[in-house]
Amino acid sequence: MDAIRFSLLAVLFLGLCGVCADGVEAVEPTMSYSLGLNADVVSLSVSADSRYIAISDEDRHSEVATSRIFLFDRYLDTALWRYDAPNVVYSVAISADGEYIVAGGRGTEGKVYLFDKDSSTPLWSYSTEADLRSVAISVDCLLYTSPSPRDRG
Prior knowledge:
By secondary structure, the protein is mainly beta. It is built from 1 helix and 12 strands; from the N terminus they run βαβββββββββββ.
């Protein structure tokens, strides 16, 4: 059983930004981090400058599904911080400047978390009446969420 690993390739970033050109060579991953044997990556978001990476995972092998939220600096080989969420976090988003991370998920009710990049303690959290499948944060730091289709009525 291999540990789940994620690798961020410079070529991937260039391709996503539409900057690839003929002659671009494949490169080695800039970082690699093992989330563990029982973890599945659920969501990944990258800051505009590609420096910060926010990830949520899900432990699908435990009795109660839970998630962890990680923040990485691509120049370091370890997570800046980790938050153990009591619910599954389906979506993470990071502000363009990498200063704020928003996360949303499910539980007995949906929950939204807002973090500063410097701390794994949420700045605030908010319980909703629906599971959240998607979260976003705008350039001016407005938060957006989308409920699960089954919760839309």
